[in-house]
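Question thread 4412

I'm putting together a teaching handout and wanted feedback from people who do this every day. The idea is simple: show students a protein as raw sequence, then show them the structure tokens that encode its fold, then repeat with a second protein so they can compare. Below is the first pair exactly as I plan to print it.
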Amino acid sequence: MFEGQTDADVVDAIAAAAREQNVQCARELAAIGELYARRAPVGDTERDQWAIDGHANVVAEISAALRITRARASGHLRYAIALRERLPRLAEVFARGDVCFRVVATVISRVYLVQDPKILAELDQAIARRAPKWTRLSTAKLGERIDMWVVHADPAGVRVPPERDDVRFVEVKPSSDGMAQVWAQLHGSDGVALDQKLEALADTVCREDPRNKEQRRADALRALVDGADGLQCQCGSSDCAAAQRKTDTNVVIHVLAERATIDGDSEAPGYLPGFGPVSPALLRDLATTAKLKDLVIPPLSPEPGYRPSAALADFVRCRDLTCRFPGCDAPAAVCDIDHTIPYPLGPTHACNLKLLCRFHHLLKTFYAGVAGWLDLQLPDGTVVWTSPTGHIYRTEPTGGVFFESLSQPTPMALRGLKMPRRKRTRAAERHARIMAERRINEERFAAQPPPDF
């Protein structure tokens, strides 16, 4: 690609690519803003208090088009609306490639509480002139620079960091080969207590246990979940009391695997929903204490009634594993089972059933029709979606990717429903959040002694 070019040419290419990246990012957000203006008009009062209003419908379209999660699509739309409706001068600078998305996102966040149109327009103008020089600043210094302008124009509009107590969390995410990673932020006292408990549990095995200290501390987390007062020792000795500890638990974990792998006749991996593949060795180890249940392939004939049997529901959840809307990865445990062709016209059969999270289930139900979302399900479980703009998206059942038997074809006017309603409109909720933050600032200013000039 760069054959025959000098080092200077390569540096120029880096700078040009970065600028073009800014331009294209601005163009993407501008297009999202235009779609919002067309799809979620201000006058759509009929759906203002629907749980899934016009705003949420646009988020679904963005999610499908970009193949990203609904949360990420919602963030894209939030930035697009801010640039279109609140910061048009900054949007112009962004469109020329003079600033990067990091700067734009920080500005949007820091001026969020400013509500007076005149003050906001003045800030937009001032920040847009200076923002190209701020790209070199660190994120912290960039926030300080923007706040300097906000506090001068509207002191109550300055964002105050949340109390540390408000940002506690525990997050568990898949790693690799059936492993998981855990991140947490706790009260200091709780962190110390957890650390001491893990340390104590890790020391409840004999000296012949083959695991190192770090591995025993990791296994101690499972012991905490089980409510055990010690780890089961892995020394293998019949004389070790710790090795005889039971590991019973009331927590149910579903793992998918082929019977041949459990029997040792295959090395095909299993699947832990929400986390991914599980190695054959780990599967066989889990199988020694697990309850095994065969998955029933649905018969050719449909079931009577609307609600699928437990066996059919299990098959659909194992075949799909996640929500079937494009871009959504909500796990089967939180999904509804949807009739693609509504019952009773559509049969209660695997070829007409799929998983949809509650959000996309409501979206499909209330935003369907010629100008809405349409879905077509194929015998192998593939779902073909048509968006309101006519774009086509295909989603295939995740279970069929891991298990060939689940990818085999399974051949074979909405009355009384009401969209759940919001307590207040999205605009009213946003206004309430802004005013609440502003009141905190105003009370803080009122409690401070007057300046001594």
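The second pair follows. I'd like the answer to focus on this one:
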Amino acid sequence: MTYSNYSGVLPVNLLPDEASPRWNNKGDNGWQLIATTMVGMQSVPGLVILYGSMVKKKWAVNSAFMALYAFAAVLICWVLWAHNMSFGTRFCPILGKPAFALTRRFLLHEYGGFYVPMADYVYYEFVFAAITVILLGGSLLGRMNFYAWMLFVPMWLTLSYTVGAFSIWGKGFLENYIIDYAGGYVIHLSSGVAGFTAAYWVGPRQSHDRQHFPPNNIIHMLGGAGFLWLGWTGFNGGSPFAANLIASLAIINTHICTATSLLVWVSLDMVVYKKSSVIGAVQGMITGLVCITPGAGIVEPWAAIIMGAMSGSIPWYTMMVLHRRSALFQSVDDTLGAFHTHAVAGLLGGLLSGFFARANLLRMMYPTSHYGPGLMYSILDRKPKDGLIQMGHQIIGAVFIIVWNVVVTSLICILISRIVDLRMKEEDLDIGDDAAHGEEAYALWGDGEKMPIRWQMPPRIPSMCRRLN
């Protein structure tokens, strides 16, 4: 027996037992669980390792723990109220009604219009929400009071993330207008803008830390980056909720764009600074992943190459050139540059998706929606008005996400500051992990610094070797 949906005509194995109902497609369900787990591993262990390795040694434990805590806290908030605020019954144009996503009846019924259980949907959208908060936290490493972070995570998830998700992906006022395939706006633009805003309110690191902040383990940093890159297969490949053609296209586009972006970023480093940078390569990788996300399954592979070239160069310019010249960027201490790698790259990807989106791919992904074709194709079809309207929608969506996150993140930080200090005490900032958690990452000398000359091998040891010979 067969069924038809936007993914094509697929065979369904009909089993009479309750564990495999007629609507459940085992292939789609299996892929969705794998894809979701890959996205979860981007955060734990991916960003846990990346953050713990990319910071100064004295902040390794604190940075990794911020990511781990956020992952756990978001899950509990998600199933208790946030999932339905993001994707449930409409309460107002920007928000759904809070409700539990815990009961067997809710989790094991069909996710409407697809052939997987609702549990897959709740799980998948949770890992998206979790990574958004963790990415935001990258702007705050090296000085935020952990107790303030514990309050910030559920408040920001509830008051900011749910609004963006419902407005663009749920049943909100932008759902039928904004092309955002897998979260260029909902996840990356919001996390970059909110992280930058929160960094303003928390305040900067100590001046010494801000000027001298070497990674404590570059090899581990690359390992965390690897989890992030390969995990993006599930990030973009899982968005159709089916093992279909769009999922396959999204995956290959994701890796093409990322590789291009990395190579362009490294090339610019070599041309301008005469030296390739491992950290720069990781930044270029991230901007490529972010840029392709809003259009991964709805653009052609050649467009993914162009998007990669732009995501490897425009965020490079804002981070390496504009950042150093701008008084605003200099006054706000964005520890890992999340504004450039996520806000700038996410905005770029959203606009380029509105430019390169192909009509037939949009119909395959969104059979019941009426998104306009990309501006380029509308010009080629001599209907530029349609493409201009879609670009206008993309801009409106970006403005909404930016304004909402600046305002709400500021209010959250102000409220938390009335309860507990946003920033660690100055004497604790001198110490780092041991002051915050009573633990240290490594029982090793130094803090990413070269060993002094006096630590050479004692002269008596070579003489002993000569006697032994």
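Top answer:
Good format. For the second protein you could add a caption like this: The first helix runs from residue 26 to 54. Strands lie at 2-5, 8-11, 90-92, 95-96.
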